[in-house]
Automatic annotation (TrEMBL):
GO terms for molecular function: pyridoxal phosphate binding; transaminase activity. PROSITE patterns: AA_TRANSFER_CLASS_3 (PS00600). InterPro entries: Aminotrans_3, Aminotrans_3_PPA_site, PyrdxlP-dep_Trfase, PyrdxlP-dep_Trfase_major, PyrdxlP-dep_Trfase_small. Transmembrane segments: none annotated. This is Glutamate-1-semialdehyde 2,1-aminomutase. Keywords: Pyridoxal phosphate. Its cofactor is pyridoxal 5'-phosphate. Pfam families: Aminotran_3 (PF00202).
Length: 359
């Protein structure tokens, strides 16, 4: 096996001299030579020069089908012409206006039109920021401290989110996790038992379809229905992390597909049409923990502050608006489902023919 892998490495190195050359410079600049853990690979990663639709090309001229579509951010594919045109036009008008824009209103309306549970919304620069804000809003709203999450469910890379993670957690004070409760994924008995015994729980956060972007699937919609029932019973905020599933499982995400109404929803990826962007939205009374009231004690001490240099950046806002408006009026989700079924059926058929377990 070792010799087989060695021959694969040798062939890879031989075919990708330009990527190898770029990696030589990158390796002395970035840890592991990359800017995202997922892109780390040995002996070196490929370096992509351009992409269009479902395809991308590396510097050595090899063509790839991007099944993951830009880490899941590109439901419309790479370089969709409507988004390219809109972003190009906005660049000429300004990339950072340092002020409110009409584009952020358009973007917010595009989200609300697709997800009815969202009464108010705030934009961020990533999904990690969105889940961090959702937890803070829940704590401020309830006056309680603890957050429940499930083992290996991914909610970004901030300190609280990495509790119960199978990833590297160096540099995180263990005291940070004193306010986090990690339960076995999908264990509703454990959830109800925990909420019945602990009165200091502000919220539960979950991926709708299971840990690792649904790779460890759960029984839906029953799983989500039970969480909604339990959180209603104990007065706990239900945060649905739709960073991955939002606008993908259906126009309105997992909550529309499975007819679930969370208290807060976190979003990113497809939200910004391929540019950086995140958001948290939901019940107005919870999101309004950010709002000024003109009362010194509230505004200066109790209110949830929210800053961010690139919040609702105009380039992200126009890309996100165009993307969500296309999703609203075109059969994009239906097409994605058809392609997913075709891919799954093809893989299963191949496994059966080759007598490989896994169907």
């Amino acid at each position: 096996m070792e010799g087989f892998m060695s021959s694969i490495d040798s062939e890879y190195i031989r075919k990708h001299p330009k990527s190898a050359k770029i990696f030589e410079k990158s390796a002395v600049m970035f840890p592991d030579g990359v800017t995202h853990d997922t892109r780390f690979m040995t002996p070196f990663p490929i370096y992509v020069s351009n992409a269009l639709g479902p395809l991308k090309w590396d510097h050595d001229g090899f063509e790839y089908v991007d099944y993951v579509s830009g880490h899941g951010a590109l439901l419309l594919g790479h370089s969709h012409p409507a988004i390219v045109d809109a972003v190009t036009d906005q660049i000429k008008k300004g990339t950072h206006l340092g002020a409110n824009t009409e584009l952020e209103v358009r973007w917010g309306n595009a989200v609300k039109n697709l997800i009815p549970s969202i009464e108010k919304i705030r934009f961020h620069s990533s999904g990690t920021e969105a889940t961090m804000m959702a937890m803070r809003l829940a704590r401020a709203y309830t006056g309680k401290n603890k957050i429940v999450k499930f083992q290996d469910h991914f909610h970004g890379w901030h300190d609280y989110a990495l509790a119960g993670s199978d990833g590297a957690t160096g540099g995180i004070p263990k005291s940070t996790w004193d306010s986090m409760i990690v339960l076995p994924s999908g264990d509703m008995d454990a959830l109800e038992d925990t909420l019945s015994r602990d009165n200091d729980i502000a919220a539960i956060i979950t991926e709708p379809t299971g840990a690792h972007m649904g790779q460890n699937p759960l029984q839906v919609p029953e799983y989500l229905e039970k969480i909604r029932e339990i959180t209603d019973l104990y007065g706990v905020v239900f945060i649905l992390d739709e960073v991955v599933t939002g606008f993908r499982l259906s126009r309105g995400g997992a909550q529309e597909r499975f007819n679930i109404k969370p208290d807060l929803t976190t979003m990113a990826k497809i939200l910004a049409g391929g540019l950086p962007g995140g958001a948290v939205g939901g019940k107005a009374e919870i999101v309004d923990m950010i709002q000024h009231r003109g009362e010194p004690e509230w505004d200066n001490q109790k209110r949830v502050s929210h800053n961010g240099t690139f919040n609702a950046n105009p380039l992200c806002a126009i890309a996100g608006s165009i993307c969500l408006e296309l999703i609203a009026k075109e059969p994009i989700n239906e097409m994605a489902d058809l392609m997913a079924n075709k891919l799954r059926d093809g893989l299963n058929e191949t496994l059966i023919k080759m007598e490989v377990p896994g169907v």
